[in-house]
Design brief:
Length: 102
Amino acid sequence: MLYRQEPAIGFTVLNVLFIFSVIGYFFCGCHKTAGLLVNRVVMLAALNWLVNFLFIVVSSPALLRYDLSTMIINMAFIPPLLQRIYQTFRVGAAMQAYKHMA
């Protein structure tokens, strides 16, 4: 219901989640285990977000139709990025537990 009442809040949440996912992807070291193609696609999605952000900031007022393509890309990238971050933390925790046992 929140999305129907106020789309701007939903878009804001998606944007924040996408940015934290991309930052977490590189900060947690997920890019080291991913292939070159995956890293390039993530960088391309982040670049698309940045260009769209700059366009929306410059062109005031922001129109919803310019945000839709970026939101679709964000919704496609958020789950895989969060899954990879989760797996990295899970493997890291398992390695820490193994080191303490040995």
